Amino acid sequence: MSDTRPILIWFRHDFRLRDNAAVTAAIQSRNPVICFYIQESADAKTESAADWWVAESLLALNRQLKEKGGQLHLFEGDAEKIIPEIVQQSHACKLFWNRRYDFKGKETDQILKKSIRAMGLEVQSFPNNLLNEPWTVKNDKGQPFRIFSAYWRAVQRYMNIQAVLPCPENWVFSTREIRHCLGYKDIAILAKETQDSSWKIKLKQSHRFGENEAHKQLKSFIENDLAHYAKERDFPAKDGTSLLSAFLRSGQISSKQIWHEVTKNGSGEGTSKFLAELGWREFAWSVLWEHPDLNQHNLRPEFDKMPWKKASDNLQRWKEGQTGYPFIDAGMRALWQTGFMPNRLRMVTASFLVKHLLIDWREGEKWFAQTLVDYDPACNATNWQWVAGSGIESAPYFRIMNPILQSQKFDPDGQYIREWVKELADVSTAFIHTPWKADKQPANYPLPIIAHEEGRDRALRAWKETH
Ligand code: FAD
């Protein structure tokens, strides 16, 4: 007789049915399945743009599961308490999940594996949304790589990326009742919460959700932008990048799927540059794997002595896009309005905070974590440490980006600036990067918070004192 006990599938930042190893293994076993997600206590405290994105993505996943005849069950609270109850009430025989690689997630999973196995269940974990498991890429001495270029060469030489898994067929959902388990949350409550979210009101027009939308976005990028990616990616007004980061972070598309589609359809400089950016994402996760407290501690200890200025009015002006530097302000305002900022601007705004304003990179990291829809603990902290110079692979601190030259180079006619800094809409191109030099000052736009030379010299002095 066939085993009718359910298999539990715990979704975690892998909100897709295609190329989802845990889902495929569960469906292929032919047992009925129960799909669930837990809004874990740690996630629930502050509502960030990324939380809102995840909530909308869960609703999209629920719609997909409904089309298959089932649903996503939602819980809120502590996974270590909730899962044993689900196991008991559903009489499940197995629990499957795709791995997570951050310290807290990993720790919770290890504890759970032990306790659920002790209840007599089989627990299986599968690789999640990386091309390589983060502990697998090592140098000849068996050490993790410290330099991206060497890391990426090794990955390209040895990598054997598995084929993409199709969406499994013949779904059977268990009818066992789990609504009375601790922390059960009706999905309608989540729908209501996203409706009421202040992020939704602001961000909804800028974003679409779900696995199918992620694939449409990839297709459109490959058809329209991939060939020019290397040349155009740094020009924010051109929209020449894939805009896949939030889909990737929530696992609505996998890096493997992207890799295969891009290598099948593209070639040349654009393709290799794009794949290298995916490589940076991989590298960031391998750095986080080795340094679980990456968003808290300088990887170069000499930075512990930096005389950071107290977070103050200047930090607030940076957050609000009121620094008086149009390119910086455009990026910061776009972030607040859309939950997204192009990479070039992330670098320039981060550099400005850490160097010109001499504010600790951790303040910036926190603000991005709160406001980016694609917030990713590995990519965010690695990049902040890269910009600050405190990371293992970093831009040297003394290389200070000039916000005016960056603006002139990457937004030459000020199109991006005019889109986001409305006070400057009528400023001529001659003064769009330096409006304070115009004869007539634009109304309601601040003067520079600090002169570029003064900020640069102060940053260099601070760096010299501590190195
Ligand atoms: P594309 O240019 O199309 O790149 C494709 C994919 O490659 C991206 O979706 C992303 O997954 C990956 N990628 C690209 N650049 C990088 C990079 N420098 N480091 C790691 N992965 C990269 N990216 C995040 O996904 N989440 C973050 O929280 C995040 N914080 C950042 C903070 C700072 C200070 C900086 C400088 C960069 C940060 N990035 C972060 C990296 C990068 O800016 C974004 O991944 C990129 O802008 C997303 O746009 P896209 O999908 O169009 O990228």
UniProtKB/TrEMBL annotation:
<dbReference type="InterPro" id="IPR036155">
    <property type="entry name" value="Crypto/Photolyase_N_sf"/>
</dbReference>
<dbReference type="Pfam" id="PF03441">
    <property type="entry name" value="FAD_binding_7"/>
</dbReference>
<dbReference type="InterPro" id="IPR014729">
    <property type="entry name" value="Rossmann-like_a/b/a_fold"/>
</dbReference>
<protein>
    <submittedName>
        <fullName>Deoxyribodipyrimidine photo-lyase</fullName>
        <ecNumber>4.1.99.3</ecNumber>
    </submittedName>
</protein>
<keyword id="KW-0285">Flavoprotein</keyword>
<dbReference type="Pfam" id="PF00875">
    <property type="entry name" value="DNA_photolyase"/>
</dbReference>
<dbReference type="GO" id="GO:0003677">
    <property type="term" value="F:DNA binding"/>
</dbReference>
<dbReference type="GO" id="GO:0071949">
    <property type="term" value="F:FAD binding"/>
</dbReference>
<feature type="binding site">
    <location>
        <position position="274"/>
    </location>
    <ligand>
        <name>FAD</name>
    </ligand>
</feature>
<feature type="site" description="Electron transfer via tryptophanyl radical">
    <location>
        <position position="308"/>
    </location>
</feature>
<feature type="binding site">
    <location>
        <begin position="241"/>
        <end position="245"/>
    </location>
    <ligand>
        <name>FAD</name>
    </ligand>
</feature>
<feature type="binding site">
    <location>
        <begin position="374"/>
        <end position="376"/>
    </location>
    <ligand>
        <name>FAD</name>
    </ligand>
</feature>
<feature type="site" description="Electron transfer via tryptophanyl radical">
    <location>
        <position position="361"/>
    </location>
</feature>
<keyword id="KW-0274">FAD</keyword>
<dbReference type="InterPro" id="IPR006050">
    <property type="entry name" value="DNA_photolyase_N"/>
</dbReference>
<feature type="binding site">
    <location>
        <position position="229"/>
    </location>
    <ligand>
        <name>FAD</name>
    </ligand>
</feature>
<comment type="similarity">
    <text>Belongs to the DNA photolyase family.</text>
</comment>
<feature type="domain" description="Photolyase/cryptochrome alpha/beta">
    <location>
        <begin position="5"/>
        <end position="131"/>
    </location>
</feature>
<dbReference type="GO" id="GO:0009416">
    <property type="term" value="P:response to light stimulus"/>
</dbReference>
<dbReference type="GO" id="GO:0006950">
    <property type="term" value="P:response to stress"/>
</dbReference>
<feature type="site" description="Electron transfer via tryptophanyl radical">
    <location>
        <position position="384"/>
    </location>
</feature>
<dbReference type="InterPro" id="IPR002081">
    <property type="entry name" value="Cryptochrome/DNA_photolyase_1"/>
</dbReference>
<dbReference type="GO" id="GO:0003904">
    <property type="term" value="F:deoxyribodipyrimidine photo-lyase activity"/>
</dbReference>
<keyword id="KW-0157">Chromophore</keyword>
<dbReference type="InterPro" id="IPR036134">
    <property type="entry name" value="Crypto/Photolyase_FAD-like_sf"/>
</dbReference>
<keyword id="KW-0456">Lyase</keyword>
<dbReference type="InterPro" id="IPR005101">
    <property type="entry name" value="Cryptochr/Photolyase_FAD-bd"/>
</dbReference>
<dbReference type="GO" id="GO:0006139">
    <property type="term" value="P:nucleobase-containing compound metabolic process"/>
</dbReference>
<dbReference type="InterPro" id="IPR018394">
    <property type="entry name" value="DNA_photolyase_1_CS_C"/>
</dbReference>
